[in-house]
Predict the 3D structure of the following.
Amino acid sequence: MKRLFLTTFTAICCSLLTWAATVTVIPAPKSATMGEGFFTFDGSTKIAVENAQQLKAAQLFASHFGQTAGFLPAIGIDSEGDIVLSTDTTLPPEGYNLDITTNGISIKAADTAGFFYALQTLRQLLPAAFDSSQLQPHTTWQVPVMQIEDSPRFGYRSLMVDVARNFLPKSDLLKLIDIAAMLKINKLHLHLVDDTGWRIEIKRYPKLMQVGAWRMHRDEVFPARPNQRPGEVPNEGGYYTQDDIRDIVAFAAERQIEVIPEIEMPAHTSSSLAAYPELACPSVDAPITVLPGGGGINTQFIYCAGNDSVFTFLKNVLDEVMQLFPSKYIHLGGDEAVKTYWGRCPRCKARMEAEHLSDLEDLQGYFMQRMSDYVRSKGKIPMGWDELTNHKLPDDIIIYGWRGFGEAATKAADQGHKFIMTPARVLYFIRYQGPQWFEPYTYFGNITLKDVYDYEPIRPNWKPEYANLLMGIQASMWTEFCRSAADVHHQLFPRLLAAAEVAWCQPNTKDWYDFLQRIDVQLPRLQMMGINYAHSMFNIDHKLTPNGKGKTTVEMSCIRPDVEIRYTTDGTQPTSTSKLYKKSFDLNKATVVKASTFKDGKQMGEVLTLDVAFNKATGRNVTSDANNDYVITNGLRGSDRHSDFEWAGWYAKDGSFVIDLGKRTSIKHIVLGCINNSSMGVHIPNEISISVSNDNKTFKQVASKSYTHDEVFRTRTAIEDAVFDNLSANGRYVKVAFTNPGKCPKGDFKEGQDTWIYFDEIIVE
Ligand code: ACM
Ligand code: ZN
């Protein structure tokens, strides 16, 4: 038994190795055997198909030759040709067999999707120039001889694009659809509605387009954008006309992609409420506008659950939506509904009494059930975000698990509901994809290409039945921080390639190194298509840790194992001959470390600069209840992004930390690095007290500082150092105690929410 396992294991490894070096397709085919030689396309190549559907797929593929090669293969319904498509009903749905010889190519599949995917595989086997928009006269259009058998792991392989936060013109969306299809993604979830804009023409409600689609442009980053002020005329936005939607749906369908519309309710819809304010609760006591950004308390303006006109409106909207989208699924949102105004609304109260609902969550359950019933009455299947598990689930609804690792979706699975995983911690491509100092500003948290690649949706602690209810996964491209298609490309690529691989490939075939070799072949193709993909996978992560004895230990790493890290410590730029980083090293004096990654002598990443400074606290131990407090004495300042892993944070509480200076030390001057990022609820403390001790038991206060309310809650993002001068203290232990300023005040971005306090460094002199 054991020997059989080993033999099988060895065989699998060997087969992986044989194709790994050569098959450059993403997602990786299930199995492939390489031969020798090439099949070459030229003006005499003939493609034989069996029917009109195969013809369409073949035409889409062959049209590239017209653009880039200057010839068009002939395509005809025939049984003879150089490339022959023939149906084999024994093959799995969406699967295909591809047999490339020097004389011809045979493609077998059971359905049109299978033929389409075989042709996408051929597309990726052709030179990157195949995806150019210009003639490439010196290219040889050949594909290597091989046999592939392929089929997907999941039937639901989705990309979500949030066109509400950043409206993407139709042409940009079509380009994304084409690339997603090339990656064998088969669903496009369009987030068409949010507080920031309504993006679909609904003929019955013209103000959705006249008002709901437009907001005030703001230069600030998303969370820091002020709401529309009285007298301002919205000047940024757009929407898809019904003709546009028909074009998008048809373009996607030709590429085997089903487009699923999401019409948000009852929250995230200031756009429709700005157009039709009578649909909000009468308890809303402020003007409703389309929100340029985070919106603050205004995001709590939601549809009134007690007003029957709301249901009539939504049903009428859905009637037009269902006419436009042939998809069997309609996504009804349902996330992040803060129910402040429901709680104050006489109509909502009356609804709760009439329907015997015990709380506001049940009121949302009622709302979602009513709309889901309507969707089902039209023969469609409703979908919603995982907050719907907070109350009784609408019948037959499919749940998207998104919060954290998406675990809430399994609550739906416990009740027999199907679900899809798009966990914010892994598949929300709004997050940073590499070391934050090199990335465009976005929300906290890093999700690297490797994090996406390593994602396994089926968790070890799951009940076995969950796996049968899991339909697949979705990469979610939220666009709060994007202002252009190029910004979207940077966040999506190359991470979408990794997500496509998770969705298509069996988990036991994963090989990170092999994946990297394949994306290196496919990324130039994206470049040919004008895609501004990120190079973040070549950047260096750092970690500086105090050793407790006055030194700081420098660790550097890169998610690519096939690059070298080279560095200098004399302030000069690193080159391919600079010192090779092999393992961590200690510093005991001020040093500027400059490092970058290199491959074959070529610089691949950005230059990381670590400006390490030393003072009496550097390299000394810190004790506190924050788990990353070591950064306070590691010799390195943070950036103005409190999420860059150089800041230690305390949420909604007072706190303190103690530094052990190692011996009795005279102290004349202390600087404490604080930060204010008002749009994220990050503020400086109310009060800071410094005390010293020789025994770490009895402390004596030597300095203190307090800030006014206005100083604490300034509207800005900036590092704000607290400076304590002219001290004449002496002691081994330094204690910093601080008080939290409490909830963010009225009018603040985070009105009513608790505050964070962060420190990046203490400087003791
Ligand atoms: C979500 O990210 N609010 C679904
Ligand atoms: Zn109400």
Residues 2-150 form a domain with the Chitobiase; domain 2 fold (CATH 3.30.379.10). The chain has a mean pLDDT of 96. The chain has four domains: 2-150, 156-505, 539-612, 621-764.
